[in-house]
Design brief:
By secondary structure, the chain is α+β, with helices and mostly antiparallel strands. It folds into three domains: 133 residues, Jelly Rolls, CATH 2.60.120; 66 residues, Alpha Horseshoe (Leucine-rich Repeat Variant); 140 residues, Leucine-rich Repeat Variant. 45% of the residues lie in helices and 17% in strands. It contains 13 helices and twelve strands. The strands form three sheets. A five-stranded antiparallel sheet has the order 9-6-11-1-12, with helices on one face. It has a five-stranded antiparallel sheet with strand order 2-5-10-7-8, with no helix packed on it. The longest helix is centred in the N-terminal third of the chain and has 25 residues. The chain is globular.
Length: 382
């Protein structure tokens, strides 16, 4: 009896480990995939400077604004709550005119168009300043299934959305059988079963598209309508795939180039490159933390400011170190302001210390303001 009890105890102790292993298996690999515009106000077909024609929407669509009939806005169908990265790029050199990387972004939900933010990018046109990167990366998470980029200048745009990486390029036999069974249920008598089948198909990846399209000419009107909605929901995620590693490298390269440009030009906190560093998104955190060791005080200040905007907990110790030990008062100021976006005993302690003991009055004031910002958030949350 004692042996059985011991075995039962050992089994119980092992269960959490097994469960954890199962959880880890469920963690899916991610990748980024190109999303093409589904609507645009440009001509149906647009030609580039070389006379090559591109459609305004769909796969291999024209990617620029405000030139050659391309129009001023593009709309993209996406999946809600999955991160987006917009790459806005200008050109530079003789005859170049697409160098104003500013736009407004609207989300469209049930026909309602809502402005989410305005990106104030570089406004050079023709020849960019020496050393300035010719592109910007903008990260955001959509709350609607469609968004619009309204261009107020002129630039090239590429849109990517994060997705779960497909296990393989084709469906297995079991997966094909499951999809076919769900398609059959779209025509069943029970409305709830039809709805459930549609929801399940919409959650699948684009590998199911060939099967869905094969049945899209069904004689039953409701089946055709449902399949059309499913195909439209899955189609945006059919562009070329980009690995997470490649996107991280791009973000790191962007931070490095912007850091060098800020350092060379000794740009202030309100300059376009400094303000937009944090918009690169989570992949910029690690490169920005490295930039905090740069020999240029302007680069360190810009990095601290951007880390405050990104609010990554891993940055707190680095910001606290800058606040306490950096030799430049401006860097300490930016670190203090950035720490006002966090809330922990470590943060409050460091800010109190700086507000009372820093040798520079402006740093003391910045630390005191950061403490007030933390207290204000706390009172609003109660």
């Amino acid at each position: 009896m004692r042996i059985i009890s011991i075995l039962a105890l050992l089994l119980a102790m092992c269960l959490p480990v097994v469960a954890q292993e199962e959880v880890e298996k469920e963690v899916k690999e991610k990748e980024w995939v190109r999303v093409w515009p589904c609507e645009a106000d440009g001509a149906k077909s647009v030609s580039d400077a070389g006379g090559n024609a591109f459609p305004s929407t769909g796969e291999n669509a024209c990617i620029w604004f405000n030139w050659g009939g391309a129009g001023t806005w593009k709309r993209f169908k996406v999946k809600k709550d999955r991160p987006i990265i917009i790459k806005a790029q200008g050109d530079s050199g003789p005859g170049a005119c697409l160098g104003r990387l500013d736009f407004k972004l609207f989300e469209i939900d049930d026909g309602k168009r809502t402005e989410k933010f305005e990106f104030d990018g570089p406004t050079w046109s023709g020849v960019a300043p020496d050393g300035e990167p010719k592109y910007r990366l903008i990260y955001f998470v959509p709350e609607a299934g469609k968004f619009e980029i309204l261009c107020t200048g002129g630039f090239y745009v590429r849109v990517y959305q994060e997705r779960d990486k497909p296990k393989s390029s084709e469906l297995s036999d079991d997966e094909k059988s499951n999809v076919k069974e769900l398609i059959k249920k779209l025509a069943c008598d029970n409305w709830r079963e039809r709805e459930e089948a549609q929801k399940k198909l919409m959650k699948m990846d684009e590998r199911v598209l060939p099967l869905l399209k094969k049945h899209s000419d069904s004689p039953e009107i409701e089946v055709r309508i449902r399949l059309k909605k499913i195909i439209e929901a899955l189609t945006p995620m059919t562009g070329e795939a980009v690995s997470v590693e490649a996107m991280k490298r791009e973000a790191a390269e962007m931070v490095e180039k912007m850091g060098k440009y800020i350092a060379t030009k000794k740009l202030a906190r309100d300059s376009e490159p400094s303000k937009n560093l944090s918009l690169i998104g989570p992949y910029a955190v690690e490169p920005l933390e490295k930039l905090c060791d740069d020999e240029s005080a302007h680069a360190r200040a810009a990095a601290a400011q951007a880390l405050g905007g990104l609010k990554a907990e891993s940055s707190v110790k680095i910001l606290a170190g800058l606040l306490k030990s950096d030799t430049d008062w401006l860097v300490r100021c930016r670190a203090a302001t950035a720490m006002g976006n966090f809330d922990s005993e470590e943060v409050v302690k460091a800010l109190k210390e700086a507000s009372e003991n820093d040798k520079d009055e402006e740093v003391c004031a910045a630390a005191a303001e950061a403490l007030k910002a933390i207290e204000k958030r706390k009172s609003e949350e109660k």
